[in-house]
Amino acid sequence: MSSESNLNLKNSGGVGTKGKELKIEKFKIPHTYVIIAGMIILSFIGTYIIPAGVYERVKDVNSGRMIIAPETFTYVANTPVKFFSFTEHNLFTVLIRGLQATSGIVFFTFLVCGFFNMIQKTGAIDSGIAKVAYLFRNKGMLLIPVVMFVFSIGGVAIGMNTEAIAFVPLGVLLARALGFDAMVGMAMVALGAGVGFIGGFINPFTVGVAHSIAGLPIYSGMGFRVAVYIVLYVATVLYIMRYARKVKENPFSSVVFDLEVKQKAMSNTSTNNQEIPDLTLRQKGVLLVMLVGFITLTYGVLKHGWGTEQLISIFMFMGIASSFVAGISPTNSANNFLDGARGVVFGALAVGLARGILVVLEDGQIIDTILFYLSSKISSLPGVISALLMYCVQIITNLFIPSGSGQAATTMPIMAPLGDMIGVSRQTVVLAFQYGDGFTNYINPTAGGLMSYLAISQISYEKWVKWVAPLMGIWLSIGAAAIVIAYFIGY
């Protein structure tokens, strides 16, 4: 059954469907902005309750990074964030400062979506994906593990995370053409890269930095990490495939069904072979432009470590060149760009708003205090319980320091010697950091990458949380089990 015929079933939902919608409405998760604003307010209150404190930072000779000197924590005079002020930063300037701090990823979201919409308006992508969907009409499920594996290797090898955002529009279009939904399309890309990043046995930004700071040989203990990566990959693939199968059989089960209805009304794409026209010469030219662009993008990321600036430039080239090849006028091209950027305003602003949480905590100087308190509690407990508590501390710390290398530089100088004192090996300490840092990046609103994924796929944060929560429980359980096993085998 095609995605079009599935979506047309909405009119036959009857009383049962209405009742289901009413039942869900009772337990509706608050709006994304409400959730983030609530966290900002809690952080604001925390600056008045939690004593301010700081660690001194010194340069690590192994990694070259500024790290915490673990014995230097001192309490300082409280600097609570003001509710309002005419002359100083206050609660009402948080959004502006959050947007300033995340301007790179915010503009990346706007520009990539704008330029991608220029490409999509040529019709070449829809026609090409429709043909691919027809070829895989009876085995579309096979594409899920394949696509996820490709992106997971990027996560393993180069710590791919935000770089994969550029591929989300294609993933969403492909998923829809195969009869799935935007959630499947985004998850294939985001969680594919995520599994690789989390389980990244050679991830230079997490494992590499943590090993260097902990004084361990870089990428040592790889065998155990590879085994956990495989478990994570299989569990994630099965989770997404199970959901995709439900959506394929019954589109009402889609968490983003309203989004799919809206998009279907705006699109004429069909997977029915009788309705798929042959690609025109101009459309073939557009696909060639895209092929060249994505090959260049991939090479640049892998070989030269390209960041958002270079990625945007490649999308700019693809958008302008595609419009030219397709014969679209400059005025229409500009309007297509604006339409694409306009569609992600909600999500892009959420990135800056979420960063406001960190702005408040930094202004109040309470991040180091929280870390000091948590680490001191671990030292009083022995054995495997301490190892698990280290894992929990890293999970909590990730809310305040979503950068993997930043979290390593902040926590490893404390956790590594603490592990020596209580009998937890440094490899296990690094493992606790690796998984504690990684998992919650895919539910943490302060993680700019996640909010950009959601913005580009137009999935609200509250719907994402509803969908990903069970998987998050699976991931966290796998991480805990891995740490317990590592402790008992003397890893």
UniProtKB/TrEMBL annotation:
Location of the protein in the cell: Cell membrane
Coiled-coil region: none
GO cellular component terms given for this protein: plasma membrane
Pfam family for this entry, one: DcuC
Keywords from the named record: Cell membrane, Membrane, Transmembrane, Transmembrane helix
InterPro entries referenced in this protein's UniProt entry, alphabetically: C4_dicarb_anaerob_car-like (IPR018385), DASS-Related_Transporters (IPR051679)
Transmembrane regions listed in the UniProt entry: 33-55, 94-119, 140-158, 164-184, 191-214, 226-244, 286-306, 312-331, 343-361, 381-401, 467-489
UniProt topology in membrane: Multi-pass membrane protein
Superkingdom of source: Bacteria
Protein name, UniProt field: C4-dicarboxylate anaerobic carrier
